[in-house]
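#lab-general

N.A. 3:47 PM
ok so I finally got the sequence cleaned up, no stray characters, all 211 residues accounted for. can someone with queue access submit it? mine expired

B.Y. 3:52 PM
send it over

N.A. 3:53 PM
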Amino acid sequence: MNFGTIRTSRRLFLFVLLLSGNLAGAAVESTSSHGDPASNTWTVEQVVAALKEGREPSVSFEEAIYSSMLTEPLIVRGTLHFTPPATLEKEVVEPYRERYLIEGDRVTFESERKHVKKTISLEDYPALRSFVEAFRASFTGDVAQLKKVYETTVEGTSRQWTLLLRPHDQVGKSMVDYLLLSGSEGRIATIAIRAPDGDRSVMTLRRGPSR
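B.Y. 4:20 PM
back already:
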């Protein structure tokens, strides 16, 4: 896998993470307890269950990208979309236009500034496929599948929690060091991703379409 493919794969599974955590439309019953006092530390099961209840069909975002190749952070804005049952889309509208689209096992990337439109199959990218499958599993409350791909660590309470995800296998570790989600109840506020080379991004989510 070359450098460009690694960068694209990181962005793709980050966007899958965001969508599956916030945008699925189907209602899911949860066996996790939401009656615990806010002072009690949450578990990963409670976080996932709460995120399902807080999902929306679209979420706007602002993402700050930090890289050794940049003299200052790159700020991008756009919207994340979910169309049932399994179409996931990330649309960047500022300062350029890009689109990432997952339909089943097919992933399409479009960029106006790069003058490119490329479609790949998840069958050809086992690491990316494992991330997609893990977060699709979250639609049905399959926390076991999420834990199969990631080492999960939760800190905090329902009012303010963090969820740290670190890949188990070496292929996953070659693309990302960790993902750190923070939020309150069933809403994700920020997601930070750090690559092994030190590059990182921090995405802030907002309700409703992008401006």
